[in-house]
């Protein structure tokens, strides 16, 4: 499903490059040559000057084709943060992490594959940030359930000159990171839905297609409803973020709602899609796992489902009956 507001020609180009070159070792270089690795970066710094809507379509296209790359981390998170903090930088594959008081960060996306890491750490009453070479920090390799690098990073912050950044910038990074994963989860759920429909339409059982069985129809309608709910909540958060340049007072609530909806939808979609496809859907040869396992992995990153449920509940109850609508429609 193409993101609303995206030029169809651009969406087709994104789909084509992943379809044709998704397994190529030089995919990143191809994406770079097309201006996609810094899609939202300012043109004066080598970016393509596009927006989050186009970036969301690019992430979704990668998910549809089972391609795992640090596009979001490099562009929407690390690259954006350097621009927002007015920090000078050159072209490199980057990720970003928020260190604890001891200079450590767990499960950092793509750290072991990055050339540079934008490290942020608490200092006095604010934060410091530095763009450091990956070789200058200690990285302990790890991975999530779909094999994407999720590494431990240790930085000797006492020896790294940092630039002062505000807490508001760090808070915005957290919301951007959370919304990135919501977009990716939605694309994975849509992929599982498409495979379920295709299988039910083509598989014949007892002399008729599976799609003719009412129980299967109910499963697929449930998958479609949950995927649509997650996408609706995510697109509402994305729209508010884009329209307000990430300054909407209700944005945290909308992102929390998107993550909560996407997280709970994942449980239903994964369960029912595997039930529709049966044993074949559990095999490595079938592509269903590219979507179901990805959704399960991503829904727990940058905040668990319980974290976002709790935040959403606290904000709703704190607003009370008379101010709840203002949270939903800021």
TrEMBL record:
Claim: Oxidoreductase is one of the keywords in the record: yes
Single GO MF descriptor: flavin adenine dinucleotide binding
Acyl-CoA dehydrogenase/oxidase C-terminal domain mapped to chain residues: 179-299
Cofactor(s) of this protein: FAD
Chain ranges of the Acyl-CoA dehydrogenase/oxidase N-terminal domain: 11-68
Key words, A-Z: FAD, Flavoprotein, Oxidoreductase
Highest taxon of source: Bacteria
Family under the similarity heading: Belongs to the acyl-CoA dehydrogenase family.
PANTHER family, A to Z: ACYL-COA DEHYDROGENASE (PTHR43884), ACYL-COA DEHYDROGENASE FADE28 (PTHR43884:SF20)
Record protein name field: Acyl-CoA dehydrogenase domain-containing protein
Annotated organism of origin: Mycolicibacterium vaccae ATCC 25954
